[in-house]
Amino acid sequence: MDNDQFDDALLRAAMDRTALSGWGRLTIVDAARDAGIPLDEARRRYPVKAALLLKLGRLADESALVDDGSTGTVREKLFDLLMRRFDVLQQYRAGVRAVLRTLPFDPLLAAGLGAATYESMRWMASAAGLDVTGLIGTLRVKGLVGVWTYTLRAWDRDDSEDLSSTMAALDQALDRAARLGNLLEYGRRRSATSATAEAATTHSSEIDPSIDLPLEPHPNYP
């Protein structure tokens, strides 16, 4: 068994047990025994069980970031990147949903996963063609975290096989981010160049790489 097979077996066993008993009752020992893998190797690779969730996040990122040669607008790229992340979460759906139920009662875990989510969205934004450097880049990434959070809540409730509700929610979140972003962009241009009346009523339907994604995450949902 190579490292990838080991990680997959342990992660699946852990998420299956989490779905049944909850994240709080999960131990690496139990997951390793369920998977039939050596305890010493499980201890070496996963010293704390939160490392399993970080591994799942990395798997989702790696799947999203695979270069398939596709082209499109920034908005289209963001849509594809984020849906590929959801495709990975869907493979562990019951376990992930159980973890989400735990987060309001485990602030340390929520904080750790929040930091990991921010880093993931920084990769997604950059891969889609957005500049993520500087203060404006930070605002863009925070906005994309908001898009992800909004869509994650929809995914949590989406029982369809094709994730149609999740895709609709992502569309809505990206559209809202684009509208708000263009309004902010218009405000900056107007103060700098005294825009014309025609420019004041023109709004693009695409996310412009030069503007923010100012959609704030829900305050009570990581």
UniProtKB/TrEMBL annotation:
Biased composition range(s): Low complexity: 194-204
Region feature Disordered, mapped onto this chain: 194-222
Species annotation: Nguyenibacter vanlangensis
Name recorded for this polypeptide: TetR family transcriptional regulator
